[in-house]
Design a protein that fits this description.
Structural class: alpha+beta
Domain UmuC: 7-191
Strand order of the largest sheet: 5-6-1-7-8
Enzyme class: transferase
CATH topology of the largest domain: Dna Ligase, domain 1
Shape: globular
CATH superfamily of the largest domain: DNA polymerase, Y-family, little finger domain
Helix content: 25-40%
CATH class of the largest domain: Alpha Beta
Radius of gyration: 28 Å
Number of strands: 20
CATH architecture of the largest domain: 2-Layer Sandwich
Number of helices: 14
Strand content: 25-35%
Subunit structure: Monomer.
Region (Disordered): 382-428, 455-496
Low-confidence stretches: 350-363, 368-496
Catalytic activity: DNA(n) + a 2'-deoxyribonucleoside 5'-triphosphate = DNA(n+1) + diphosphate
Distance between the termini: 55 Å
Mean pLDDT: 77
Number of domains: 4
Largest sheet: 5 strands, mixed
Length: 496
DNA sequence: TCTGGGGTCCTAGGACCC
DNA sequence: TCTGGGGTCCTAGGACCC
């Protein structure tokens, strides 16, 4: 927790609905509801005029229609929201480079770091008031609620308290007086399930939460959640404002107007969803190893099935084939309400499929080949730019980093002992398995020397990427019985 | 006419490795 | 041959957020 209220939280009021009212003057002053308009739709955003009738986010659209039949019901125009959001984020970055967008309509700003700034409560309030005015200008009239305080928690709660179009700076030292009377559900991260568990141990307010012992909270909520809430209740929150968050998964899902039984149709939908995901992967220059299929049945029971490839891919054929296989693991004969496809385990480099085919990759489901650090790399060249996701590879690093070699997971024989590993000081690694991988995250060129028992010193092969910016993930095949020579026995560097 | 779509983080158990 | 602890990876599900 800081000594000055230098964290600002900005929240655009009823954002989607506000953009609609801005673009269609006839909607101004009227209830506007943005969300799914079908029979299974839910409300994404309700304008304040609609909230008067009790319409809320996440409410079924059918119920919203019952409460507020005269409202305008609109599906989202996300391109417009995105453009408006970008303009707001740009305004925030004029104030400080430390801007963390939480969603299209929400962001934190860290004012610390600018030594010359007046970070007194009065100074921050003046800045926030000017900020609200700038946001209104650049968005064409969309209003924002702004909170500021000594932590993310306090800034967020402050902006919540003054919605809509409000401003609150919480003075340092006043945090617990503000928080303690509140119901626990006001703390972000405390939803219905957590609130119920807390109620059962007699905790209803943040003050009671602060007085509860951490051991009791951990027992009721688990280690991470219990510990985090015990701290938040005492306004202890040192979470940083993180300007750049890397995405961890990309997914697409669809709820159907009517439940689907036809397997061929389900398969076709899986393909469509997988294609959507891969298009995004490609556009964002990402690839991923884990494919997940989500299946919601007619009765809302929900299954996920996932499988992890030996190497990352953004290949729509690979993703779709695997997704269809995962779909087949679940009995869908009674009707499917929702299907989803996701890819996680993201890397920001694309597999260079130099020696394999998509079909090979598809087969290579299973854990990534385990590390055999210090494998016989004759030479490894290339360090990725610091900005890239994969940190600099250290060829001599331990498991999980740098160069690895091992059998392809799909080539392992269950029950058989694991293949030999390379260890420092070892002269020769005998490989008795078939096809193998050499993997060098962050490397651009990898040279491997082979030596066979039969032929003596064997071929030297170099694997490289075309794009100097990319790391290779190079599946290569070597012959059973091949021996690999150690680094210390290497000859002069071979030409690539 | 019950319950969206895009995400993140956590837990727990099993496999496997050292 | 047995025992065991710690760590990582993978899978499935759940809570939560906007």
């Amino acid at each position: 927790m800081r000594s000055v209220p230098s964290i600002v939280h900005l929240d655009l009021d009823a954002f989607f609905a506000a953009v609609e009212q801005r673009d269609k003057p006839s909607l101004r002053g009227k209830p506007v509801i943005v969300g799914g308009v079908g029979t299974r739709g839910v409300v994404a955003t309700a304008s304040y005029e609609a909230r008067v009738f009790g319409v809320r986010s996440a409410m079924r659209t059918a119920e919203a229609r019952a409460r507020c039949p005269h409202a305008a019901y609109l599906t989202g125009r996300f391109a417009a929201y995105r453009i408006t959001s970008r303009a707001v984020m740009a305004v925030l970055r004029e104030i400080s480079p430390l801007v963390e967008p939480v969603s299209l309509d929400e962001a934190y700003v860290d004012l610390a770091g600018d030594a010359g700034r007046d970070l007194s409560a009065a100074g921050v309030e003046e800045l926030a008031a000017a900020l609200k005015e700038r946001v209104r200008e650049v968005t064409g009239g969309v209003t924002a609620s702004v909170g500021a305080g000594t932590s993310k928690l306090v800034a967020k709660i402050a902006s919540d308290l003054r919605k809509p179009d409000g401003l609150l700076v919480v003075e340092p030292g006043a945090e617990t007086d503000l928080l303690h009377p509140m119901p626990v559900g006001r703390i972000p991260g405390v939803g219905p399930a957590t609130a119920e568990r807390l109620r059962r141990i007699g905790v209803h307010t943040v003050g009671e939460l602060a007085r509860a012992g951490e051991p009791d909270l951990v027992a009721a909520l688990g280690q991470a959640h219990g510990h985090a809430l015990a701290r938040l209740a005492m306004a202890e929150d040192d979470r940083a404002v993180v300007p750049l968050r890397e995405s961890k998964s990309i997914s697409a899902e669809d709820t159907f107007e009517h439940d689907i039984v036809d397997p061929a149709l389900l398969s076709a939908i899986i393909d469509r969803l997988g294609t959507r995901v891969c298009e995004r992967l490609t556009r964002e220059r990402l690839s991923g190893r884990t494919v997940t299929v989500k299946i919601r049945l007619f009765d809302f029971t929900t299954y996920t099935r996932s499988a992890t490839l030996a190497g990352p891919t953004d290949d729509v054929r690979v993703v779709n084939r695997l997704a269809r296989r995962l779909l087949a693991e679940v009995d869908t004969s009674a009707g499917v309400r929702l299907l989803g496809v996701g890819v996680s385990g993201l890397a920001d480099w694309v597999q260079e499929d130099l020696f394999g085919s998509a079909a090979d990759v598809d087969l290579a489901v299973g854990p990534r080949p385990r590390a055999a650090a210090d494998v016989d790399l004759v030479e490894a060249v290339g360090r990725p730019p610091a900005a890239r996701r994969n940190p600099t590879a250290d060829v001599r690093a331990g498991p999980g980093h740098g160069a690895e070699a091992g059998p392809r997971s799909d080539q392992r024989v269950p029950g058989e002992p694991n293949p030999p590993r390379w260890s420092p000081g070892q002269d020769v690694m005998h490989t008795e398995f078939g096809p193998g991988w050499v993997w060098g995250a962050g490397l651009r060129r990898v040279t491997v020397r082979f030596e066979t028992a039969a032929t003596g010193p064997g071929p030297v092969r170099t694997f490289a990427t075309d794009d100097p910016d990319l790391a290779p993930y190079t599946p290569l095949t070597w012959d059973p019985g091949l021996r690999v020579s150690p680094k210390k026995a290497r000859p002069a560097s071979p030409a690539p």
